[in-house]
Design goal:
Blueprint: E1 2-5, H1 15-19, E2 25-28, H2 52-58, E3 79-82, H3 93-97, E4 103-106, E5 112-114
Antiparallel strand pairs: 1-4, 2-3, 4-5
The structure holds iron/sulfur cluster (2 copies).
Length: about 120
């Protein structure tokens, strides 16, 4: 199993980190050298700028999460990195909880799953 996060769309809500039963995701500070430590392709890597449409949708939402904050603190903020993709058991919990709709999973027969926020 291969898992990555499309970093420019990640709000830092940490839902993936909270729900994954096998700890695929780690939250990293956006300035951390590990912010791109998963298999995201070059156009989905973190380069310091979030996608405008995602910022417009989530930046002022008051749902108890820190959106687009540099640091992971207080249960949200920072950016998600799928550091343990091969551990994924395809339970799909993260796929329906991802605010940024930015998780991509490829299974062992090359089926690709994208997150859709419920
Ligand atoms: S689908 Fe995979 S990465 Fe997502 S929560 Fe389930 S085990 Fe974790
Ligand atoms: S659930 Fe999605 S938007 Fe939220 S931290 Fe994880 S990857 Fe980022």
């Amino acid at each position: 199993m291969q898992v990555y996060v499309e970093k420019p769309k990640c709000t830092g809500c940490a839902h993936c980190f909270d729900v994954c039963p096998v700890a695929v995701f780690q939250m990293k500070d956006r300035t951390s050298p590990d912010a791109n430590a998963d298999v995201a392709p070059d156009n989905d890597k973190w380069t310091g700028k979030s996608e405008d449409s995602v910022v417009a949708k989530w930046s002022s939402v008051q749902d108890g999460h820190n959106h687009f904050h540099e640091k992971f603190e207080g249960g949200s903020g920072g950016i998600s990195v799928a550091t343990q993709g091969p551990s994924c058991i395809l339970c799909q919990a993260c796929l329906v909880e991802c605010e940024g709709e930015c998780i991509v999973i490829t299974d062992d027969t090359n089926n690709v799953y994208h997150s859709i926020y419920k």
